[in-house]
Design a protein that fits this description.
Helix content is about 40%, strand content about 15%. The protein contains eleven helices and twelve strands. It starts with 15 loop residues before the first helix and ends with a strand.
């Protein structure tokens, strides 16, 4: 997809904060599983000196996302386990493709299995969901963006998975961009144009993207006078979106237009065809289904 015309939000990478979040989630998962008492099934059945290797294998096609999370989980767990990664994030794969191999003490592999599969399956599911939405807008100017409708504690990782699936990241949180929504306008008693002016004044020393939400074309006309970076067109039908694009083109061509609100896979193509620049889709994260992945033992005899 084409890059955005104006200053954009930062794309999430697999950086140090993402690694820290991943390790924290691994610790939480293991605490849920072990509760300080251990893996009683493995302890009862498996020789603690046994070593082996197993591959992480998807049962369906998808897009690799969060491969470094496997290594981070193994490092956090310790116990002599090692991880070899066989795919790079952003690469498509088919069902049955070995994504990674875990090797070391069999007991450790069994104890860590569900934590790794849950973690990876979630990220793969978000990436695959994103890929479907991105494919549906091919040939248009629209870029597909995520939202803050993420799983608590998972935001960096889920946004990273969106990026792996070909989507773009919207603001990371409340701290890194101004997004004036209808509730802000209602509580402050401001019009969209007045709110944009006030936001510009507040952020002059530390410039950030300024975006304002509008519900009607009248509100859009007011907002365009102040040249915000982005105007969010909330829950507008395609016919209204086309009129909004025409207004923007005539009055403020540098302003980006973002369609949002209840966007589905079966409607995003029609929305993109209206000429909007961005489409934000909460379903990339809040409605993604984890990809089915399993652990298959290798014969190391």
């Amino acid at each position: 997809m084409p890059p955005s015309k104006t200053g954009d939000f930062k794309q999430q990478t697999w950086d140090a904060p993402a690694v820290a979040d991943c390790r924290r989630l691994v610790r939480l998962s293991l605490d849920e599983d072990l509760a300080g008492r251990g893996d009683v099934t493995t302890e009862a059945l498996v020789d603690p000196s046994a070593v082996g290797a197993a591959q992480i294998v998807p049962r369906a096609a998808g897009v690799a996302a969060g491969m470094p999370a496997i290594a981070a989980a193994v490092e956090e767990f310790g116990g002599g386990l090692e991880a070899a990664l066989h795919a790079e994030d952003g690469e498509p794969f088919g069902p049955g493709t070995a994504l990674a191999t875990l090797s070391g003490p069999v007991a450790g592999i069994l104890t860590l299995e569900r934590t790794v599969l849950n973690l990876l399956g979630r990220l793969l599911g978000v990436a695959e969901q994103t890929r479907r939405f991105v494919d549906a807008v091919q040939g248009t100017r629209a870029c597909v963006y995520d939202t803050r409708k993420t799983t608590p504690g998972w935001r960096r990782l889920e946004k990273y998975a969106v990026a792996c699936g070909g989507g773009r990241n919207h603001r990371a949180g409340l701290f890194d961009a101004v997004l004036i929504k209808d509730n802000h306008l209602a509580q402050a008693g401001l019009s969209p144009s007045e709110a944009v002016r006030r936001a510009r004044g507040h952020t002059r020393r530390a410039p950030v993207v300024v975006e304002v939400e509008v519900d009607t074309l009248d509100q859009l006309a007011h907002a365009l006078r102040e040249q915000p970076d982005i105007v969010l067109l909330d829950n507008m039908p395609p016919a209204t979106l086309r009129r909004a694009v025409g207004m923007r083109d005539d009055e403020a061509p540098a302003v980006q237009l973002e369609a949002s609100g209840g966007v589905r896979l079966d409607t995003i193509g029609e929305i993109a065809a209206t000429g909007v620049d961005r489409i934000s889709v909460g379903a990339l994260t809040h409605s993604a289904v984890a990809l089915d992945v399993g652990l298959d033992w290798l014969d190391v005899s």
